[in-house]
Amino acid sequence: MKRSTINKLVKHGLSVGVTAALSMSTLAAYAAEPIKVGLVAALSGQSAKSGEAITRGLVIAIDEINQAGGVLGRPLELVRRDDESNPSKGLLAARELIQKEDVAVLFGGLDTPVSLAIVPVANRMKMPFMGGWAAGTPITQNGAKENYVFRVSAVDEVVDEALVQYGIDNYAMKKPGMLLINNPWGESNEKGFRKALLARGLEYSGIERIESGDVDLVPQLTRLKEKGTDTLLMVANVAPSAQVVKSLERMGWDVPVVSHWGPAGGRFGELAGPTADRVHFIQTFTFTDTQSGKGGEVFGKLQAKFPEIKSVADVTPAVGIANAYDAMHLTALAIQNAGSTQGSAIRDGFYRIDDYQGLIKDFKRPFTQTQHDAIGAKDYVFTHFVNDQIVPVQ
Fold it and tell me: Is the keyword Signal assigned to this protein (predicted)?
């Protein structure tokens, strides 16, 4: 709301409806200079749904915060840039948001390579960088003496433990094969898988690399099949994951596929076809038809804000919404604790968060100087696509 609009409302008298919606603290917040928060994410291309989901989660949280009076008496304002899933473009976008838009905090998107490109700049410029999706372990565990990177999302090393255990518990997995995207995200998970398998005394049949633009994975899958692979451990985003499913169908190979959460980032159900449900992948949160409590409350706000959302099927991927929603509320608490928008003060403000009852879980001391990841091993759920909707595996 513009200052001139507020002055007119105050001068001519607020209506009963407006009075109920806008408390004096809210009016004061809207009259103040906004605190800008930046988002660098995939807003176009095959992973655009991920950027849309993150945006929705941030917007709902920002609306709630602003309606409650803002932070430090100031409203929050979201400024977005499209990284097109490209590290170079993501880095340029981050610099623009930091240097030209003067954002107080930067939020990241789906792609680990993009986030890894931004991390050194964020640390060097003392810019708090909050990860809301990308799961690469080195994003937060980056070795910086002064680490400004936090995350409300999955962590590869922890996810890999969960994926391996899921394969053992549900498919009696004894000889898995790895299908890994050929980039730093795939490399991060290879290390995690090796560690998780070694700890359980299991060997892997082989490791095959896939590219984002691959349209035929039969050669890689054939090599794994010939080595006696009994379960596929997959790490890739939407498009290559869909091609894995199509290639398996062409081969007639009915092998279980246990996946990182890459398929959730876009139109996987549509792209993979009728056997998309064979891929079981990890999530931090899902909306359900019977959602109540915090989930039902947030879902109602999503429907009110975005009329195109008719059912829970329309909030795919829910994980992006939930991660971003909780990340924004935790970031607001950090800024409030800091008492300013100065980067180092906000970083210390994250460490002073005691409790936040979030959408994913009740966060208790989510961050410490040695732990910058708020999501742990007990916070994951396994899901799959059913009729283009992500639902928990029964």
Answer: yes
- What's the pLDDT tens digit per position in 252-307? 999 999 999 888 877 888 899 999 999 999 999 988 766 778 999 999 999 999 99
Handedness of CA 299, 300, 305, 311 (dihedral sign): positive
Nearest to 328 by CA among 128, 112, 96: 128
CATH architecture of the domain covering 32-154+292-377: 3-Layer(aba) Sandwich (3.40)
CA-CA-CA-CA dihedral for 279, 285, 290, 292, to nearest 10? 180
pTM here is 0.82
Among 3.90.70.10, 3.30.450.40, 3.90.1570.10, 3.40.50.2300, what is the CATH number of 157-260? 3.40.50.2300
What are the phi and psi torsion angles at 208 (to 5°)? Answer: -120, 140
3-state secondary structure (DSSP) of residue 359: coil
Do 32-154+292-377 and 157-260 come out as alike in CATH topology?
yes
